[in-house]
Amino acid sequence: MSDDRTRERWTRATVYPDMWTDPDDDPRENDGPSPEGEAATLLDYLTSYRMTLRMKCEGLDAEQLARRSVPPSTMSLLGLVRHLAEVERDWRNWLTDGEPEPKIYGVRDADFDGAVADPAVVAASYADLEREQAATDAVLAAHPDLGERVGKDEVAIRDLLVHRIEEYARHCGHADLLRECVDGRVGQ
């Protein structure tokens, strides 16, 4: 590497050098048939994007995960993990007629601002994400009809699922660029 600003680009893939990892090592790859039905397909895409985010963060220490992209942005890989935990809770709040659960990290942008290079913060952030994902998955599982409208705004379950996929997909694109800035690792 020439300096902190210019990283040598690299990948672990050997079969297809423009990929993040070889297909045989990719947990998102499935040799079986594609999912049956709309709900199963949407959940498969969501699962894949969730795995992609985790893969983009693998092998990095707390400092690397908390490293900011380009000033004045506060975006970091750890910030994305925290943000997506917050987003899971927010989307779950759309399902209820009652009072929304409070923000996990408090004030606006605390998900990114609080993404500091501390191993305890990293561990807590991953735990928050896993807890919020499981809670939202459980609530949505109680609504198998994708056309059902729920919450104060009567949003369709399908809409919530698609928005979750969109949120993860967008942030996985950010994660690609953030990871490349951290250590030069690139891929699909």
From TrEMBL:
InterPro entries: DinB/YfiT-like, MST-like. Residues 16-38 are annotated as: Disordered. Transmembrane segments: none annotated. This is DinB family protein. It comes from Actinacidiphila alni.
